[in-house]
């Protein structure tokens, strides 16, 4: 009698495990089928074109090797001010001691988008407040000579990030602290905007 109970107990245990594995297997198959079905009905929503971020893709590569901080990448000539100033990659303290600093998160001169150059108001950019609409800015680099025409000036707060936003066309943005005669850390920035009008 005890042997019969033992055998019946083993058979019941095997049956329970068998049923459990079958249920588990059916569950896995059902889950896989559900995932395949739900992915086949998945639709990717593409935002309207005006929402998509503009990506600048130049027609040709102007700079095969991207400069590193501290590299001299060219010069900026300002004919109306009778100035020719060196441009250095980077806008750290060491770079700005050497001349104009190129903001490394912006495109290089001549490329399509916003090229941002910064310098100190009391040295290199002390005279840019005299620039007027129509004046020319000439940037010379290993990629060529690029002439920009000033199309606007403005004063913004030091935290204003619109100065470095991407643009649809090739532009040059000069930025320095403002007011020019301010003692200490100036609260604002003087901005000169210029559009590319010629490349050689």
Summarize the structure.
Helix content is 22%, strand content 31%. It is an alpha+beta fold.
Question: What is the overall shape?
Answer: elongated
Low-confidence segments, given as residue ranges, are: 2-8, 31-58
- Give the helix proportion (percent range): 10-25%
Largest sheet: 8 strands, mixed, barrel
Strand order of the largest sheet: 1-2-3-4-7-8-6-5
The succession of helices and strands, N to C, reads HEEHEEEEEE
Number of β-strand runs: 8
Structural class of the secondary elements? Answer: alpha+beta
Please provide a written account of the structure.
There is one protein chain. With 200 residues, the protein is of the alpha+beta class. It contains two helices and eight strands, in the order H-E-E-H-E-E-E-E-E-E. It has an eight-stranded mixed barrel with strand order 1-2-3-4-7-8-6-5. A hairpin with a 4-residue loop joins strand 1 (72-78) and strand 2 (83-89). The longest helix is centred in the first third of the chain and has 39 residues, at 2-40. It starts with a helix and ends with a strand. The model is unreliable at 2-8 and 31-58 (pLDDT under 50).
């Amino acid at each position: 009698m005890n042997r019969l109970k033992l055998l019946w107990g083993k058979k019941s245990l095997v049956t329970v495990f068998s049923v459990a594995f079958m249920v588990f297997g059916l569950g896995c198959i059902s889950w896989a089928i559900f995932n395949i079905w739900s992915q086949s009905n998945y639709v990717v929503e593409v935002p309207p074109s005006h929402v998509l971020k503009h990506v600048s893709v130049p027609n040709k590569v102007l700079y095969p090797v991207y400069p590193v901080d501290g590299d001299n990448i060219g010069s900026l000539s300002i004919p109306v001010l009778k100035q020719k100033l060196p441009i250095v990659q980077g806008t750290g303290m060491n770079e700005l001691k050497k001349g104009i600093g190129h903001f490394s998160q912006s495109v290089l001169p001549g490329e399509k988008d916003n090229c941002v150059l910064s310098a100190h108001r009391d040295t290199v950019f002390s005279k840019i407040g005299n620039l007027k609409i129509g004046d020319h800015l000439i940037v010379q680099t290993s990629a060529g000579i690029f002439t920009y025409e000033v199309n606007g000036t403005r004063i913004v707060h030091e935290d204003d990030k619109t100065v470095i936003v991407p643009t649809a066309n090739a532009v040059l943005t000069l930025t320095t602290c403002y007011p020019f005669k301010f003692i200490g850390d100036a609260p604002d920035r003087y901005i000169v905007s210029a559009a590319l009008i010629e490349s050689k």
